[in-house]
Amino acid sequence: MSEINLANIVEATLFAAGKPLSTSQLREVFEEHERPDPDAVKEAIELLQERYQSTGLELVRVASGFRFQVRQNLSDWVARLSEERPQRYSRALLETLALITYRQPITRGEIEEIRGVAVSSNIIKTLLERSWVRVVGHRDVPGRPAMYATTRQFLDYFNLKSLDQLPPLAEVRDFETLNAELGFADPAPANIEGEDASGATELSTSDSAEVTQEPLSDDYESAFEQQDEDSVDDVISREFD
């Protein structure tokens, strides 16, 4: 199989998939006797990335694999095709998501301690329904509260390969900065079920507690697969160095 033919197959597969695909998933579309090796697939991807450099599309890598997408500088025009208004989120929800992102794994009680207000059940429900966060274990304290962490879908949505691409915590001076970094629209001023609209609380380290960690699924493990095989604890501690 020639390189150009392989590139065309990879191109067509990514367009038809409608979701990111890893190199191993791309190889699965071939019969076993004609299946290219991983290096050949990577070379085909590099060829496609060069081919699309001067177009309105780009081939990018996110946590789940590779996908085609509209270039960000063209999104304003493409967005006009959608009849739905862009989703808007409350400041409270975005602050909660930011805390989970930088402090994961973290419990609801720890989030409330840092923010100084109760976290609405609707906020946690929304984050879970969007598959941006998931339960990864339970804290070994009375009540065994659930611990939350971000998912591979979270990274895919925000066009990230790994958590290392997030802005360092020291650079996040206020909520508006983080809001822009994550690519959200301006948060809606309305509160959610008693949540306040105060400024983002400083993300300080809370007292540690014993943790009972449940086995992590592929979704959570893959969020860290680009981090040179660091442990989750190493990733978290590095954010606060």
TrEMBL record:
Compositional bias of type Polar residues: which residue ranges?
201-215
Acidic residues bias spans: 216-233
Q: Where in the sequence is the signal peptide annotated?
A: none
Against SUPFAM superfamilies, the record matches this protein to:
Winged helix' DNA-binding domain
> Which GO annotations describe the biological process of this protein?
chromosome separation
Region ranges (Disordered): 186-241
Q: Which InterPro entries match?
A: ScpB_csome_segregation, WH-like_DNA-bd_sf, WH_DNA-bd_sf
- Entries under NCBIfam families matching the protein: SMC-Scp complex subunit ScpB
**This protein is called what?**
Segregation and condensation protein B
